[in-house]
């Protein structure tokens, strides 16, 4: 598993959002970006995390951030998740796991006594120059916005 750290150049990426529109790192040059990876749309933890980011979205905007979520769900599942929770930010459908793997968040996990490969819930804060300025690996799904915004 690749381990990106503060000061590393963010890997370039491109994918399709919940509207089946292309979106990539180049779209955010000159802007601070919160790129968060989550295991699966519409699951309890992922829903709490997305709702928390939604509830503090205006704080992100005021602080100059854009927010983008990434999971291996389909475009249709991302759209449904976004619509159901009134999410004001794009969600990338990375079914091939290309972006997920390039950010090093795919790997072995344990849940309820079984091991499997999956997405590790991780957030990367990327500065205006495409450099990683923070990595949050221990995400608190109920207070994730605070975890991100307190770094300012």
Quick description:
This protein is 26% helix and 29% strand. With 152 residues, the protein is α/β, with parallel strands linked by helices. 34% of the residues are buried.
The portion of residues forming beta strands comes to 25-35%
CATH class: Alpha Beta
Mean pLDDT: 94
Task: Please indicate the count of domains.
Answer: 1
Helices, by number, come to 5
SSE string, helix = H, strand = E?
A: EEEHHEHEHEEEEH
CATH superfamily membership, which one? Glutaredoxin
Poorly predicted regions are: none
Radius of gyration: 14 Å
The CATH level-2 architecture is identified as 3-Layer(aba) Sandwich
What is the CATH topology assignment?
A: Glutaredoxin
Shape: globular
Order of the strands making up the biggest sheet: 5-4-3-8-9
Largest sheet: 5 strands, mixed
Structural class by sheet pairing and helices: alpha/beta
User: What percent of residues adopt helix (DSSP H or I)?
Assistant: 25-40%
User: What is the number of E strands?
Assistant: 9
What's the end-to-end separation, in Å? 29 Å
Structure, explained:
The chain has 152 residues and is of the alpha/beta class. It contains five helices and nine strands. Helix content is 26%, strand content 29%. A five-stranded mixed β-sheet has the order 5-4-3-8-9. The chain has a two-stranded antiparallel sheet with strand order 1-2. Strands 6-7 form a two-stranded antiparallel ribbon. Strand 4 (65-71), helix 3 (75-85) and strand 5 (91-93) form a beta-alpha-beta unit. The longest helix has 12 residues, at 44-55. The N and C termini lie far apart (29 Å).
């Amino acid at each position: 598993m690749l381990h990106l750290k503060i000061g590393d150049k963010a890997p370039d990426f491109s994918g399709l959002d919940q509207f089946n529109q292309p979106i990539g790192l180049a779209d955010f040059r000159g802007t601070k970006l919160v790129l968060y990876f989550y295991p699966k749309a519409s699951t309890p933890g992922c829903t709490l995390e997305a709702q928390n980011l939604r509830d503090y979205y205006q704080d992100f905007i005021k602080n100059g951030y854009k927010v983008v979520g990434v999971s291996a769900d389909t475009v249709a599942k991302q759209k449904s998740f976004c619509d159901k929770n009134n999410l004001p930010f794009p969600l990338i459908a990375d079914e091939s796991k290309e972006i997920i793997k390039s950010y090093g968040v795919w790997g072995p996990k344990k849940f309820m006594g079984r091991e499997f490969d999956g997405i590790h819930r991780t957030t990367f804060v990327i500065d205006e120059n495409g450099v990683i300025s923070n990595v949050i690996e221990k995400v608190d799904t109920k207070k994730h916005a605070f975890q991100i915004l307190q770094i300012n």
